[in-house]
Specification:
The complex is a heterodimer.
Chain A lengths: L2 E12 L2 E12 L3 E5 L6 H8 L7 E6 L2 E2 L4 H6 L1 E4 L11 H11 L4 H14 L15 H13 L5 E5 L7 H16 L3 E6 L2 H7 L2 E6 L2 E6 L1 H6 L6 E6 L5 H5 L4 E7 L2 E6 L2 H14 L4 E7 L3 H11 L5
Parallel strand pairs in A: 3-8, 3-9, 6-7, 7-8
Antiparallel strand pairs in A: 1-2, 1-4, 4-5, 9-10, 11-13, 11-14, 12-13
Helix pairs in contact in A: 3-4, 3-5
Chain B lengths: L1 H21 L3 H19 L6 H17 L3 H10 L2 H7 L4 H26 L7 H25 L8 H18 L11 H7 L3 H14 L6 H31 L1
Helix pairs in contact in B: 1-6, 2-3, 3-6, 3-7, 3-10, 4-7, 4-8, 6-7, 7-10, 7-11, 10-11
Classes of the chains: A alpha/beta, B mainly alpha.
Chain lengths: 311, 250
């Protein structure tokens, strides 16, 4: 079996509301799987089902080959989880938190001490290992959560918004560590709001909205599916009438982005030819002209709108 | 069997964590140490009673208050700090987590209750009675710690003071109807009926048996009832917590 995670018809209600609506997806071993969606779309609920915290009302989930509802202990033994909210024990030191996690995973004392030392050194926390987590910055708390999730060298790592609210440097470190972990052949399930992060890290992305999977594919394929969202960004030496431009064939929409004009089109070459003629006709100079593929954010907004709600 | 042993081991890790975090929390100190001490002083000062007559009540009250002081506060604290989700994500069964909570409550209760128990050595009660008393104390501490974990099951709140208030509502009446201040035999008929539903009744009766050689129920019944109550509290705590766990996390 090639799948590290398999969600089959997963369904979950919260207070009578359908939070996760019969979703299906598979995550291959060794890939970073991005899980995107607006607030309240069902991302955290899905992660909680996959990590054995919640039981689904319908469907099942296989994690590392174990049914999370039937054999939750076996499934949990193979995973590491960094939840959305920082939840290390603030009244324990960094070292004590790691030792506790090691004990809860049944790791022998010598091994958990070696793992903890290596992780703390790797994340730059070894010098503060005896300090209470209470006094840690948000970035340090996030690092200790990652260390706690990695203490058992899990096959699959679940990350729920791991860089949310972090400074640039800490966020970059977290992303580097995720990539490093994935290079060792491990699977990562990453829920994020950060499109750039998903674009950089993920091999495959699922977009969830209103509890349903709106799209699932590789980031570049998702972008390619929305060619009508590609655009040409042009800067003339004088201002132009947007209405003139938007009336032309192949131009779906024209808008201003600062002093540049954006022309959305499914046929960029035809629009470039038109722009050159347009500049000649009105005696304008083209200062810059770029063809832009739709960003993941554009695709995300389009898909979440199509599936019944504003992103 | 290996699975069970492993879960037991992990429940000790939960207990160790509880000892480090919760023993020094304010409500635990207040409800587990200060309150019973002042209640006992209020009961004894000016009554001119010999020590051996005071000891059964003192041991009963100390064991009951200390063993029930840690357990109720753990779940709401863990819910509030979101650490409960961290625990549930780990390969530990809910019963092992609750056993860990119960065990940390048990250790706190046992450590403090041993102080008045050691006073019995100054009396002429005999080594055999002391050992039986020690066994009874261990069993009763287990029973009261199971009750303390049950008390935190409902409502599934993240507010420790709510649970402390509810547990006080249960604990204080129990102290007054369980033969701590007056022996069961001296109670009116209705009082004796009510007392028979309290686990503390059987423990105080047991201590009276072994220290004063006068008891209301047979000693074997005292032990059996404490063991039965322990089992009931434990099963009820696991069942109720399993039902409310999702509400705590969501």
């Amino acid at each position: 079996m090639n799948d590290a995670i398999n969600a089959i018809n997963l369904t979950k209600y919260y207070n009578g509301l359908l939070a996760v609506d019969h979703i299906n997806f598979g995550v291959k071993k060794g890939e970073i799987f991005g899980f995107l969606g607006p607030n309240g779309a069902g991302k955290t609920t899905t992660i909680r089902i996959l990590t054995g915290v919640l039981k689904p009302e319908e469907g099942s989930a296989l994690v590392a080959g174990h049914d999370v509802s039937e054999n939750s202990i076996e499934a949990k033994q193979c995973i590491g989880v960094v939840p959305e909210v920082s939840n290390a024990y603030i009244d324990l030191s960094a070292w004590e938190n790691l030792m506790l996690m090691g004990e809860l995973y049944g790791i022998a004392k010598k091994e958990r001490e070696e793992n903890a030392t290596e992780l703390l050194k790797d994340f730059g926390l070894y010098e503060v290992r005896k300090k209470l987590v209470k006094g840690f910055s948000k970035g340090m708390k996030q690092k200790i959560l990652l260390c706690m999730a990695l203490i058992n060298d899990p096959e699959i790592l679940f990350l729920d918004e791991p860089t949310s609210g972090l400074d640039v440097e800490s966020a970059r470190l977290v992303r580097e560590k995720v990539q490093q972990y994935n290079r060792d052949g491990k699977t990562v399930f990453l829920s994020t709001h950060n499109m750039e992060e998903a674009n950089q890290l993920c091999h495959q992305i699922a977009i969830i909205n209103h509890g349903r999977i709106a799209a699932i594919d590789a980031p570049e394929k998702l972008r390619a599916q929305s060619l009508e969202l590609q655009y040409i960004e042009v800067l003339f030496d004088k201002s132009v009438d947007l209405a003139d431009l938007s009336r032309k064939t192949h131009v779906v929409k024209a808008s201003l982005a600062g002093n540049k004009v954006r022309l959305y089109t499914a046929n960029p070459s035809a629009v470039v030819e038109f722009l050159v003629d347009f500049a000649r006709h009105y005696n304008l100079r083209i200062l810059s002209l770029n063809t832009m593929m739709p960003s993941l954010e554009d695709v995300f907004i389009k898909l979440t709108k199509e599936h019944g709600g504003e992103a | 069997m290996g699975y069970l042993a492993e879960q037991f081991k992990r429940s000790f890790a939960v207990a160790k964590k509880n000892v480090r975090i919760y023993y020094s929390k304010g409500p635990v100190i207040v409800f587990g140490l200060i309150f019973p001490l002042f209640l006992f002083l209020a009961y004894t000062i000016g009554r001119n009673m010999p020590l051996e007559e005071l000891l059964p009540g003192l041991i009963g009250m100390t064991t009951f208050f200390t063993a029930t002081s840690v357990g109720p506060s753990i779940m709401p604290w863990e819910t509030r700090s979101k650490t409960l989700e961290k625990l549930v994500c780990c390969p530990v069964t809910p019963w092992a987590i609750l056993l860990g909570d119960m065990f940390s409550s048990f250790l706190f209760g046992l450590a403090i209750s041993l102080i008045p128990l050691l006073f019995t050595l100054t009396l002429n009660i005999g080594l055999l009675n002391f050992i039986i008393l020690l066994f009874g104390l261990v069993l009763a501490t287990l029973c009261f710690s199971a009750l303390s974990v049950l008390l935190s099951a409902y409502p599934p709140t993240d507010n420790p003071s709510t649970v402390m208030m509810i547990s006080s509502l249960v604990k204080f009446p129990l102290v007054f109807v369980s033969g701590v201040f007056i022996s069961i035999g001296q109670m009116p008929f209705l009082g004796r009926i009510i007392a028979s539903f309290s686990p503390l009744t059987y423990f105080t009766d047991l201590t009276r048996h072994l220290i004063l050689t006068v008891g209301y129920y047979p000693l074997i019944l005292d032990f059996s009832m404490v063991a039965i109550f322990t089992l009931i509290f434990l099963v009820a705590a696991v069942k109720l917590h399993e039902k409310t766990l999702t509400k705590r996390i969501s």
